[in-house]
Design brief:
The chain is of the alpha/beta class. It folds into three domains: 116 residues, no CATH class; 323 residues, Rossmann fold (3-Layer(aba) Sandwich), CATH 3.40.50; 81 residues, Macroglobulin (MG2) domain (Immunoglobulin-like). Helices cover 23% and strands 21% of the residues. It has a seven-stranded parallel beta sheet, with helices on both faces. The longest helix is centred in the last third of the chain and has 18 residues. It is globular, with a radius of gyration of 23 Å.
Length: 562
Protein backbone atom coordinates (compact mmCIF):
# COMPACT_ATOMS: atom_id res chain seq x y z
CA UNK A 1 0.00 0.00 0.00
CA UNK A 2 1.38 3.39 -0.93
CA UNK A 3 1.91 5.81 1.91
CA UNK A 4 1.20 9.52 1.81
CA UNK A 5 4.32 11.50 0.92
CA UNK A 6 5.41 13.96 3.58
CA UNK A 7 5.66 17.28 1.74
CA UNK A 8 7.18 19.19 4.64
CA UNK A 9 10.59 19.53 2.95
CA UNK A 10 9.23 21.37 -0.07
CA UNK A 11 6.70 23.48 1.80
CA UNK A 12 9.08 24.49 4.56
CA UNK A 13 11.50 25.93 2.05
CA UNK A 14 8.70 28.03 0.63
CA UNK A 15 7.08 29.19 3.86
CA UNK A 16 9.99 29.90 6.15
CA UNK A 17 11.50 32.52 3.90
CA UNK A 18 8.45 34.42 2.70
CA UNK A 19 8.81 38.14 3.31
CA UNK A 20 6.06 39.72 5.38
CA UNK A 21 5.31 42.07 2.51
CA UNK A 22 2.70 40.71 0.15
CA UNK A 23 4.04 40.25 -3.38
CA UNK A 24 1.54 39.95 -6.19
CA UNK A 25 1.75 37.96 -9.43
CA UNK A 26 3.07 40.96 -11.39
CA UNK A 27 6.25 41.23 -9.31
CA UNK A 28 9.29 40.05 -11.34
CA UNK A 29 10.65 36.58 -10.77
CA UNK A 30 14.32 35.62 -10.86
CA UNK A 31 16.36 32.45 -10.91
CA UNK A 32 19.40 32.73 -8.61
CA UNK A 33 22.03 30.09 -9.46
CA UNK A 34 24.66 28.92 -6.99
CA UNK A 35 28.20 27.80 -7.75
CA UNK A 36 28.22 24.84 -5.33
CA UNK A 37 26.46 23.14 -2.41
CA UNK A 38 28.96 23.92 0.31
CA UNK A 39 28.03 24.45 3.98
CA UNK A 40 25.32 21.84 3.54
CA UNK A 41 24.03 19.78 6.48
CA UNK A 42 22.61 17.16 4.13
CA UNK A 43 24.65 14.10 3.22
CA UNK A 44 24.32 11.35 0.60
CA UNK A 45 24.89 8.90 3.42
CA UNK A 46 21.58 9.98 5.03
CA UNK A 47 19.22 10.25 2.04
CA UNK A 48 16.04 9.95 4.10
CA UNK A 49 16.59 13.54 5.22
CA UNK A 50 15.76 14.78 1.72
CA UNK A 51 14.25 11.83 -0.21
CA UNK A 52 11.32 9.58 0.65
CA UNK A 53 11.91 5.87 1.22
CA UNK A 54 9.90 5.20 -1.92
CA UNK A 55 12.25 7.42 -3.95
CA UNK A 56 15.27 5.61 -2.53
CA UNK A 57 13.68 2.23 -3.26
CA UNK A 58 13.10 3.22 -6.89
CA UNK A 59 16.79 3.99 -7.24
CA UNK A 60 17.84 0.75 -5.54
CA UNK A 61 15.50 -1.28 -7.73
CA UNK A 62 17.06 0.18 -10.88
CA UNK A 63 20.66 0.25 -9.55
CA UNK A 64 20.80 4.05 -9.68
CA UNK A 65 23.38 5.58 -7.32
CA UNK A 66 22.78 8.81 -5.44
CA UNK A 67 24.88 11.78 -6.55
CA UNK A 68 25.37 15.47 -5.82
CA UNK A 69 22.28 16.45 -7.82
CA UNK A 70 20.17 14.68 -5.19
CA UNK A 71 21.44 16.96 -2.41
CA UNK A 72 19.26 19.98 -1.54
CA UNK A 73 20.45 23.53 -2.12
CA UNK A 74 22.58 24.80 0.76
CA UNK A 75 20.29 26.22 3.49
CA UNK A 76 23.05 28.71 4.35
CA UNK A 77 22.81 30.20 0.86
CA UNK A 78 19.01 30.29 1.06
CA UNK A 79 19.16 32.08 4.38
CA UNK A 80 21.44 34.75 2.91
CA UNK A 81 19.10 35.24 -0.06
CA UNK A 82 16.06 35.50 2.20
CA UNK A 83 17.71 38.11 4.43
CA UNK A 84 18.79 40.28 1.49
CA UNK A 85 15.61 42.35 1.53
CA UNK A 86 12.00 42.18 0.39
CA UNK A 87 12.27 38.67 -1.08
CA UNK A 88 9.76 35.87 -1.58
CA UNK A 89 11.38 32.49 -2.16
CA UNK A 90 9.24 30.36 -4.45
CA UNK A 91 11.10 27.05 -4.61
CA UNK A 92 14.56 25.55 -5.07
CA UNK A 93 16.14 23.15 -7.54
CA UNK A 94 18.42 20.36 -6.34
CA UNK A 95 19.20 19.23 -9.88
CA UNK A 96 20.28 22.65 -11.22
CA UNK A 97 21.28 24.22 -7.89
CA UNK A 98 19.21 27.39 -7.93
CA UNK A 99 16.45 29.20 -6.08
CA UNK A 100 13.49 30.91 -7.76
CA UNK A 101 12.48 34.17 -6.10
CA UNK A 102 9.98 36.98 -6.55
CA UNK A 103 10.95 40.56 -5.77
CA UNK A 104 10.93 44.19 -6.90
CA UNK A 105 13.62 45.15 -4.39
CA UNK A 106 16.52 46.34 -6.56
CA UNK A 107 18.80 46.88 -3.57
CA UNK A 108 18.27 43.29 -2.51
CA UNK A 109 19.08 42.08 -6.02
CA UNK A 110 22.26 44.13 -6.10
CA UNK A 111 23.31 42.64 -2.79
CA UNK A 112 22.57 39.12 -4.08
CA UNK A 113 24.65 39.70 -7.23
CA UNK A 114 27.71 40.35 -5.10
CA UNK A 115 27.48 37.19 -3.02
CA UNK A 116 30.51 34.99 -3.75
CA UNK A 117 28.37 31.85 -3.96
CA UNK A 118 26.00 33.29 -6.62
CA UNK A 119 26.85 32.69 -10.28
CA UNK A 120 23.86 34.38 -11.97
CA UNK A 121 20.61 36.26 -11.31
CA UNK A 122 18.43 35.70 -14.36
CA UNK A 123 15.14 37.53 -14.71
CA UNK A 124 12.37 35.56 -16.40
CA UNK A 125 10.60 37.54 -19.12
CA UNK A 126 6.85 37.71 -19.44
CA UNK A 127 4.99 36.65 -22.54
CA UNK A 128 1.43 36.57 -23.81
CA UNK A 129 -0.67 33.58 -22.85
CA UNK A 130 -1.04 31.13 -25.73
CA UNK A 131 -3.70 28.42 -25.82
CA UNK A 132 -1.31 26.11 -27.70
CA UNK A 133 0.85 25.87 -24.56
CA UNK A 134 -1.80 23.54 -23.18
CA UNK A 135 -1.94 20.96 -25.91
CA UNK A 136 -5.70 20.85 -26.22
CA UNK A 137 -7.29 21.33 -29.64
CA UNK A 138 -10.26 23.68 -29.36
CA UNK A 139 -12.27 22.28 -32.26
CA UNK A 140 -15.72 20.65 -32.37
CA UNK A 141 -15.64 16.91 -31.72
CA UNK A 142 -17.13 14.27 -34.04
CA UNK A 143 -19.48 11.76 -32.40
CA UNK A 144 -17.80 9.40 -29.92
CA UNK A 145 -16.55 6.14 -31.43
CA UNK A 146 -18.17 3.02 -30.11
CA UNK A 147 -16.53 0.04 -28.40
CA UNK A 148 -15.76 -2.93 -30.62
CA UNK A 149 -16.05 -5.56 -27.89
CA UNK A 150 -18.99 -6.30 -25.60
CA UNK A 151 -16.49 -7.31 -22.90
CA UNK A 152 -15.56 -3.63 -22.60
CA UNK A 153 -18.88 -2.39 -21.19
CA UNK A 154 -17.29 -1.64 -17.80
CA UNK A 155 -15.29 1.12 -19.47
CA UNK A 156 -18.34 2.93 -20.78
CA UNK A 157 -17.38 5.70 -23.20
CA UNK A 158 -13.67 5.07 -22.54
CA UNK A 159 -13.85 1.60 -24.10
CA UNK A 160 -12.58 2.67 -27.52
CA UNK A 161 -9.44 4.44 -26.30
CA UNK A 162 -8.53 1.51 -24.02
CA UNK A 163 -9.30 -1.23 -26.54
CA UNK A 164 -7.23 0.61 -29.17
CA UNK A 165 -4.19 -0.53 -27.16
CA UNK A 166 -5.75 -3.75 -25.79
CA UNK A 167 -5.31 -2.17 -22.38
CA UNK A 168 -8.16 -4.29 -21.04
CA UNK A 169 -5.76 -7.28 -21.09
CA UNK A 170 -3.72 -5.66 -18.32
CA UNK A 171 -6.80 -4.68 -16.33
CA UNK A 172 -8.39 -8.13 -16.59
CA UNK A 173 -5.16 -9.60 -15.25
CA UNK A 174 -5.47 -7.36 -12.18
CA UNK A 175 -2.93 -4.75 -13.29
CA UNK A 176 -4.78 -1.45 -12.84
CA UNK A 177 -1.96 0.72 -11.51
CA UNK A 178 -1.95 -0.45 -7.89
CA UNK A 179 1.28 0.45 -6.03
CA UNK A 180 2.23 2.84 -8.83
CA UNK A 181 2.56 6.60 -8.31
CA UNK A 182 1.72 8.98 -11.17
CA UNK A 183 2.45 12.71 -10.97
CA UNK A 184 0.19 14.89 -13.12
CA UNK A 185 1.74 18.26 -14.07
CA UNK A 186 -0.81 20.67 -15.47
CA UNK A 187 -2.75 23.93 -15.10
CA UNK A 188 -5.22 23.09 -12.33
CA UNK A 189 -7.47 20.41 -10.87
CA UNK A 190 -10.82 22.04 -10.06
CA UNK A 191 -13.47 19.86 -8.40
CA UNK A 192 -11.20 16.82 -8.07
CA UNK A 193 -11.83 17.07 -4.33
CA UNK A 194 -15.58 16.52 -4.86
CA UNK A 195 -16.14 15.26 -8.44
CA UNK A 196 -17.95 11.91 -8.44
CA UNK A 197 -15.50 10.51 -11.01
CA UNK A 198 -12.75 10.60 -8.37
CA UNK A 199 -14.71 9.10 -5.46
CA UNK A 200 -12.67 5.89 -5.61
CA UNK A 201 -9.47 7.93 -5.70
CA UNK A 202 -10.45 9.89 -2.60
CA UNK A 203 -11.93 6.97 -0.66
CA UNK A 204 -8.71 5.00 -1.07
CA UNK A 205 -6.56 8.01 -0.12
CA UNK A 206 -4.78 7.79 -3.45
CA UNK A 207 -4.09 11.51 -3.77
CA UNK A 208 -0.73 11.43 -2.01
CA UNK A 209 0.33 15.03 -2.48
CA UNK A 210 -0.65 18.36 -4.04
CA UNK A 211 1.26 21.53 -4.77
CA UNK A 212 0.74 24.69 -6.80
CA UNK A 213 4.13 25.98 -7.99
CA UNK A 214 2.52 29.13 -9.44
CA UNK A 215 0.97 30.38 -6.19
CA UNK A 216 3.17 28.35 -3.78
CA UNK A 217 0.29 26.68 -1.99
CA UNK A 218 -0.93 23.12 -1.48
CA UNK A 219 -4.40 23.98 -2.83
CA UNK A 220 -4.65 22.85 -6.47
CA UNK A 221 -8.42 22.47 -6.67
CA UNK A 222 -9.06 25.57 -8.77
CA UNK A 223 -7.82 27.38 -11.88
CA UNK A 224 -7.96 25.81 -15.36
CA UNK A 225 -9.85 22.52 -15.71
CA UNK A 226 -7.34 20.96 -18.10
CA UNK A 227 -5.45 19.02 -15.43
CA UNK A 228 -8.64 17.56 -13.97
CA UNK A 229 -9.75 16.45 -17.42
CA UNK A 230 -6.43 14.72 -18.13
CA UNK A 231 -6.48 13.12 -14.68
CA UNK A 232 -9.95 11.68 -15.37
CA UNK A 233 -8.63 9.80 -18.41
CA UNK A 234 -6.42 7.82 -16.02
CA UNK A 235 -8.13 7.87 -12.62
CA UNK A 236 -11.89 7.88 -13.26
CA UNK A 237 -13.88 4.96 -11.93
CA UNK A 238 -17.51 5.15 -12.99
CA UNK A 239 -18.27 1.56 -14.10
CA UNK A 240 -20.38 1.48 -17.23
CA UNK A 241 -19.84 5.21 -17.82
CA UNK A 242 -16.10 5.94 -17.74
CA UNK A 243 -13.21 3.93 -16.32
CA UNK A 244 -9.69 5.28 -16.71
CA UNK A 245 -6.49 3.62 -17.81
CA UNK A 246 -5.00 3.41 -14.28
CA UNK A 247 -7.90 3.64 -11.79
CA UNK A 248 -6.02 1.94 -8.92
CA UNK A 249 -2.87 4.10 -9.11
CA UNK A 250 -1.96 6.82 -6.62
CA UNK A 251 -1.46 10.38 -7.83
CA UNK A 252 0.36 13.62 -7.15
CA UNK A 253 -1.47 16.72 -8.45
CA UNK A 254 1.02 19.46 -9.31
CA UNK A 255 0.12 22.80 -10.87
CA UNK A 256 2.90 24.38 -12.93
CA UNK A 257 1.05 26.29 -15.66
CA UNK A 258 -0.41 29.79 -15.22
CA UNK A 259 -2.88 30.24 -18.06
CA UNK A 260 -3.73 33.82 -17.13
CA UNK A 261 -0.37 35.58 -17.34
CA UNK A 262 2.22 33.18 -18.68
CA UNK A 263 5.95 33.54 -18.15
CA UNK A 264 8.98 31.45 -19.09
CA UNK A 265 9.42 30.70 -15.39
CA UNK A 266 6.70 28.11 -15.90
CA UNK A 267 9.44 25.92 -17.33
CA UNK A 268 11.15 26.27 -13.96
CA UNK A 269 7.84 25.50 -12.26
CA UNK A 270 7.66 22.30 -14.30
CA UNK A 271 11.23 21.37 -13.44
CA UNK A 272 10.59 22.01 -9.72
CA UNK A 273 7.53 19.77 -9.93
CA UNK A 274 9.68 16.99 -11.38
CA UNK A 275 11.99 17.25 -8.39
CA UNK A 276 9.00 17.17 -6.02
CA UNK A 277 7.78 14.05 -7.85
CA UNK A 278 11.23 12.48 -7.68
CA UNK A 279 11.46 13.09 -3.93
CA UNK A 280 8.06 11.47 -3.43
CA UNK A 281 9.12 8.35 -5.35
CA UNK A 282 7.00 8.90 -8.45
CA UNK A 283 7.12 6.26 -11.19
CA UNK A 284 5.31 8.01 -14.06
CA UNK A 285 5.08 11.69 -15.01
CA UNK A 286 2.00 12.59 -17.05
CA UNK A 287 2.24 16.07 -18.55
CA UNK A 288 0.23 17.71 -21.31
CA UNK A 289 2.11 21.03 -21.46
CA UNK A 290 4.51 22.19 -24.17
CA UNK A 291 6.58 25.25 -25.06
CA UNK A 292 8.20 26.69 -28.19
CA UNK A 293 7.94 30.41 -29.02
CA UNK A 294 7.39 33.17 -26.49
CA UNK A 295 6.08 36.70 -26.99
CA UNK A 296 9.49 38.10 -26.07
CA UNK A 297 11.77 37.16 -29.02
CA UNK A 298 14.77 37.02 -26.70
CA UNK A 299 13.19 34.12 -24.84
CA UNK A 300 11.79 32.24 -27.86
CA UNK A 301 13.18 28.92 -29.01
CA UNK A 302 14.25 28.02 -32.51
CA UNK A 303 13.82 24.57 -33.97
CA UNK A 304 17.59 24.02 -33.81
CA UNK A 305 17.33 24.18 -30.00
CA UNK A 306 14.90 21.27 -29.87
CA UNK A 307 17.74 18.79 -29.55
CA UNK A 308 16.86 17.30 -26.15
CA UNK A 309 19.43 19.21 -24.10
CA UNK A 310 18.78 22.95 -24.53
CA UNK A 311 15.38 23.86 -23.09
CA UNK A 312 14.96 23.76 -19.34
CA UNK A 313 12.16 21.22 -19.62
CA UNK A 314 14.09 18.85 -21.90
CA UNK A 315 17.13 18.98 -19.63
CA UNK A 316 14.93 18.31 -16.60
CA UNK A 317 13.18 15.42 -18.39
CA UNK A 318 16.58 13.90 -19.20
CA UNK A 319 17.57 14.01 -15.53
CA UNK A 320 14.20 12.54 -14.49
CA UNK A 321 14.87 9.61 -16.82
CA UNK A 322 18.30 9.16 -15.28
CA UNK A 323 16.65 9.11 -11.84
CA UNK A 324 14.47 6.19 -12.98
CA UNK A 325 11.13 7.83 -13.83
CA UNK A 326 9.15 7.60 -17.06
CA UNK A 327 8.08 10.90 -18.62
CA UNK A 328 4.92 10.66 -20.73
CA UNK A 329 4.16 13.94 -22.47
CA UNK A 330 2.29 15.44 -25.36
CA UNK A 331 3.91 16.41 -28.65
CA UNK A 332 1.67 19.47 -28.91
CA UNK A 333 -0.86 20.65 -31.48
CA UNK A 334 1.43 22.51 -33.87
CA UNK A 335 1.31 20.00 -36.73
CA UNK A 336 -0.73 22.24 -39.03
CA UNK A 337 0.96 25.50 -38.02
CA UNK A 338 4.05 27.20 -39.40
CA UNK A 339 6.02 25.59 -36.56
CA UNK A 340 4.66 22.03 -37.27
CA UNK A 341 7.17 20.30 -34.98
CA UNK A 342 6.89 18.92 -31.48
CA UNK A 343 6.97 21.19 -28.42
CA UNK A 344 9.42 20.79 -25.57
CA UNK A 345 9.83 18.65 -23.44
CA UNK A 346 8.80 16.18 -26.13
CA UNK A 347 12.26 16.61 -27.69
CA UNK A 348 13.91 14.95 -24.68
CA UNK A 349 15.49 11.51 -25.04
CA UNK A 350 14.48 8.38 -23.10
CA UNK A 351 10.85 9.47 -22.67
CA UNK A 352 7.50 8.67 -24.27
CA UNK A 353 6.16 11.60 -26.28
CA UNK A 354 2.66 10.98 -27.58
CA UNK A 355 1.10 12.08 -30.87
CA UNK A 356 -2.61 12.01 -31.75
CA UNK A 357 -4.53 9.77 -34.16
CA UNK A 358 -8.21 9.56 -35.10
CA UNK A 359 -10.53 6.56 -34.82
CA UNK A 360 -9.20 5.19 -38.12
CA UNK A 361 -5.60 5.24 -36.91
CA UNK A 362 -4.58 8.20 -39.07
CA UNK A 363 -2.34 10.87 -37.58
CA UNK A 364 -4.26 14.10 -37.05
CA UNK A 365 -3.20 17.22 -38.91
CA UNK A 366 -2.58 19.08 -35.66
CA UNK A 367 -0.35 16.45 -34.01
CA UNK A 368 3.21 17.75 -33.54
CA UNK A 369 5.75 16.11 -35.83
CA UNK A 370 9.37 15.05 -35.51
CA UNK A 371 12.20 14.74 -35.91
CA UNK A 372 14.14 16.47 -33.16
CA UNK A 373 16.78 18.93 -34.31
CA UNK A 374 19.43 16.25 -33.81
CA UNK A 375 17.54 13.77 -35.98
CA UNK A 376 15.78 11.49 -33.46
CA UNK A 377 12.37 10.06 -34.33
CA UNK A 378 9.40 11.72 -32.64
CA UNK A 379 6.84 11.00 -31.37
CA UNK A 380 7.61 7.66 -29.75
CA UNK A 381 4.02 6.39 -30.08
CA UNK A 382 0.49 7.65 -30.71
CA UNK A 383 -2.95 7.30 -29.14
CA UNK A 384 -6.50 8.50 -29.63
CA UNK A 385 -6.57 12.30 -29.73
CA UNK A 386 -9.94 12.82 -31.42
CA UNK A 387 -13.10 12.30 -29.36
CA UNK A 388 -11.11 11.06 -26.40
CA UNK A 389 -13.45 10.49 -23.47
CA UNK A 390 -12.94 12.31 -20.18
CA UNK A 391 -15.01 13.55 -17.24
CA UNK A 392 -15.60 17.29 -16.93
CA UNK A 393 -15.66 19.28 -13.69
CA UNK A 394 -19.42 18.78 -13.39
CA UNK A 395 -18.96 14.99 -13.33
CA UNK A 396 -20.34 14.40 -16.82
CA UNK A 397 -18.62 12.16 -19.35
CA UNK A 398 -17.79 14.06 -22.52
CA UNK A 399 -15.14 14.06 -25.26
CA UNK A 400 -12.30 16.31 -26.37
CA UNK A 401 -9.67 16.55 -29.05
CA UNK A 402 -5.94 17.18 -28.78
CA UNK A 403 -2.63 15.49 -28.11
CA UNK A 404 -3.07 16.38 -24.44
CA UNK A 405 -5.85 13.80 -24.22
CA UNK A 406 -3.84 11.14 -26.06
CA UNK A 407 -0.96 11.41 -23.60
CA UNK A 408 -2.71 10.30 -20.35
CA UNK A 409 -4.15 7.27 -22.12
CA UNK A 410 -0.59 6.00 -22.61
CA UNK A 411 0.61 7.23 -19.20
CA UNK A 412 -2.00 5.18 -17.36
CA UNK A 413 -1.46 1.99 -19.37
CA UNK A 414 2.31 2.33 -19.00
CA UNK A 415 1.84 2.47 -15.23
CA UNK A 416 -0.19 -0.76 -15.37
CA UNK A 417 2.49 -2.44 -17.50
CA UNK A 418 5.22 -1.41 -15.05
CA UNK A 419 3.09 -2.70 -12.18
CA UNK A 420 3.22 -6.13 -13.85
CA UNK A 421 7.03 -5.98 -14.16
CA UNK A 422 8.22 -3.87 -11.21
CA UNK A 423 11.81 -5.10 -11.44
CA UNK A 424 12.29 -3.76 -14.97
CA UNK A 425 13.94 -0.39 -15.44
CA UNK A 426 12.20 2.68 -16.84
CA UNK A 427 14.13 2.32 -20.11
CA UNK A 428 13.15 -1.32 -20.44
CA UNK A 429 9.47 -0.44 -20.03
CA UNK A 430 9.79 2.38 -22.58
CA UNK A 431 11.49 0.10 -25.08
CA UNK A 432 8.80 -2.57 -24.62
CA UNK A 433 6.06 0.01 -25.34
CA UNK A 434 7.87 1.10 -28.49
CA UNK A 435 8.56 -2.49 -29.56
CA UNK A 436 4.83 -3.23 -29.26
CA UNK A 437 4.07 -0.39 -31.68
CA UNK A 438 2.14 -1.11 -34.89
CA UNK A 439 5.03 0.14 -37.05
CA UNK A 440 8.04 -0.65 -34.91
CA UNK A 441 10.06 -1.88 -37.89
CA UNK A 442 9.21 1.15 -40.02
CA UNK A 443 8.96 4.17 -37.69
CA UNK A 444 8.44 7.67 -39.04
CA UNK A 445 8.18 11.23 -37.75
CA UNK A 446 4.41 11.38 -37.97
CA UNK A 447 3.39 8.55 -35.66
CA UNK A 448 6.74 7.28 -34.42
CA UNK A 449 6.62 3.56 -33.67
CA UNK A 450 2.87 3.57 -34.12
CA UNK A 451 -0.01 2.42 -31.90
CA UNK A 452 1.33 0.37 -28.98
CA UNK A 453 -0.46 -2.84 -28.05
CA UNK A 454 -0.06 -3.40 -24.31
CA UNK A 455 -0.95 -7.09 -24.53
CA UNK A 456 2.00 -7.45 -26.89
CA UNK A 457 4.22 -5.35 -24.60
CA UNK A 458 3.28 -7.61 -21.69
CA UNK A 459 4.18 -10.75 -23.68
CA UNK A 460 7.47 -9.25 -24.83
CA UNK A 461 8.50 -8.47 -21.27
CA UNK A 462 7.25 -11.82 -19.97
CA UNK A 463 9.13 -13.87 -22.55
CA UNK A 464 12.07 -11.47 -23.00
CA UNK A 465 11.51 -11.71 -26.76
CA UNK A 466 12.12 -7.98 -27.06
CA UNK A 467 15.84 -8.63 -26.45
CA UNK A 468 15.96 -10.57 -29.73
CA UNK A 469 15.47 -7.34 -31.65
CA UNK A 470 18.76 -5.78 -32.74
CA UNK A 471 17.42 -2.26 -32.40
CA UNK A 472 16.18 -2.79 -28.84
CA UNK A 473 19.19 -4.81 -27.73
CA UNK A 474 21.50 -1.98 -28.78
CA UNK A 475 19.85 0.23 -26.17
CA UNK A 476 19.35 -2.29 -23.38
CA UNK A 477 22.49 -4.43 -23.51
CA UNK A 478 24.30 -2.12 -21.11
CA UNK A 479 24.17 -4.22 -17.97
CA UNK A 480 27.93 -4.69 -17.78
CA UNK A 481 28.75 -0.98 -17.50
CA UNK A 482 27.15 1.94 -15.66
CA UNK A 483 28.32 5.54 -15.24
CA UNK A 484 27.70 7.99 -12.39
CA UNK A 485 27.09 10.69 -11.38
CA UNK A 486 24.81 11.32 -14.31
CA UNK A 487 24.50 14.29 -14.94
CA UNK A 488 28.18 15.01 -14.27
CA UNK A 489 30.24 18.19 -14.02
CA UNK A 490 33.90 17.21 -13.94
CA UNK A 491 34.41 13.56 -12.98
CA UNK A 492 32.79 10.32 -14.10
CA UNK A 493 33.02 7.01 -12.26
CA UNK A 494 32.30 3.67 -13.88
CA UNK A 495 30.90 0.43 -12.53
CA UNK A 496 32.13 -2.48 -14.66
CA UNK A 497 31.16 -6.12 -14.72
CA UNK A 498 33.97 -7.71 -16.67
CA UNK A 499 33.48 -11.45 -16.96
CA UNK A 500 36.43 -12.26 -19.22
CA UNK A 501 39.14 -9.83 -18.12
CA UNK A 502 39.50 -8.21 -21.56
CA UNK A 503 40.69 -4.62 -21.94
CA UNK A 504 37.85 -2.11 -22.30
CA UNK A 505 38.10 0.72 -24.83
CA UNK A 506 36.06 3.77 -23.77
CA UNK A 507 35.07 6.35 -26.40
CA UNK A 508 33.24 9.56 -25.47
CA UNK A 509 31.30 11.27 -28.29
CA UNK A 510 29.51 14.60 -28.23
CA UNK A 511 25.97 15.03 -29.55
CA UNK A 512 27.32 15.75 -33.04
CA UNK A 513 29.00 12.35 -33.13
CA UNK A 514 32.53 13.70 -32.70
CA UNK A 515 35.02 11.73 -30.59
CA UNK A 516 36.11 14.05 -27.75
CA UNK A 517 37.77 11.69 -25.24
CA UNK A 518 39.19 8.18 -25.30
CA UNK A 519 40.83 5.84 -22.82
CA UNK A 520 41.56 2.14 -22.32
CA UNK A 521 40.98 0.30 -19.04
CA UNK A 522 42.54 -3.02 -18.13
CA UNK A 523 40.81 -4.90 -15.32
CA UNK A 524 40.50 -8.41 -14.05
CA UNK A 525 37.27 -10.38 -13.82
CA UNK A 526 34.33 -9.41 -11.63
CA UNK A 527 32.83 -6.08 -10.56
CA UNK A 528 35.01 -2.96 -10.51
CA UNK A 529 34.62 0.74 -9.74
CA UNK A 530 37.02 2.97 -11.64
CA UNK A 531 37.22 6.68 -12.40
CA UNK A 532 37.73 8.24 -15.81
CA UNK A 533 41.45 9.12 -15.64
CA UNK A 534 41.11 12.80 -16.50
CA UNK A 535 39.08 15.83 -15.50
CA UNK A 536 36.13 16.44 -17.85
CA UNK A 537 35.22 19.96 -16.71
CA UNK A 538 36.56 21.39 -19.99
CA UNK A 539 33.75 19.75 -21.96
CA UNK A 540 30.84 22.03 -22.97
CA UNK A 541 27.43 21.40 -21.41
CA UNK A 542 25.22 19.00 -23.30
CA UNK A 543 24.51 15.35 -24.11
CA UNK A 544 27.36 12.88 -24.62
CA UNK A 545 27.49 9.21 -25.51
CA UNK A 546 29.96 6.88 -23.82
CA UNK A 547 30.66 3.83 -25.97
CA UNK A 548 32.38 0.89 -24.31
CA UNK A 549 34.02 -1.86 -26.40
CA UNK A 550 35.13 -5.18 -24.96
CA UNK A 551 36.15 -7.55 -27.74
CA UNK A 552 33.05 -7.86 -29.91
CA UNK A 553 30.79 -6.69 -27.10
CA UNK A 554 29.63 -3.05 -27.18
CA UNK A 555 27.48 -0.87 -24.93
CA UNK A 556 26.47 2.78 -25.14
CA UNK A 557 25.42 5.08 -22.28
CA UNK A 558 23.96 8.57 -22.60
CA UNK A 559 25.53 11.14 -20.26
CA UNK A 560 24.47 14.70 -19.49
CA UNK A 561 27.17 17.30 -18.78
CA UNK A 562 26.03 20.25 -16.64
Amino acid sequence: MLSRFNICIVVTIVLVFISPTQLNAQVPRYVISFKDKQNNPYSLSVPLSFLSQRSIDRRIRQHIPLDSTDLPVSPVYLDSIAKSGNIKILYTSRWFNYVAIQTSDEQALEKIRHYSFVTSTDMTGTRISQDKRIAKQLTPDPPPISARDADLTVYGQAAAQIHLHEGEYLHHNKYQGENMLIAVLDAGFPAVDNNRAFSYLREHNNILGTYDFVNTTTNVYGNASHGAECLSIMASKLPGEMTGTAPAAAYLLLRTEDTGSEQPIEENNWEAALEYADSAGTDIISSSLGYNTFDNPFTSYTYSQFNGHTTMMARAAAIAAIKGMIIVCTTGNEGNSDWKYILSPADADNILSIGAINKDGAVTVFSGRGPTADGRIKPEVVSLGVSTSFVNTAGAVTTGTGTSFASPVIAGLTACLWEAFPDRSNLEIIQAVKAAGSQYNTPDNNSGYGIPNFHTAFDLLLNKQWQDSTKIAAVLKNNWIKAFPNPFTDRVKLQLHNTDGKAINLLLYNNAGQLVKQTILTTGSGYFYVEWPEDLSDLPQGVYYLQAKKGNDKATIQLLKL
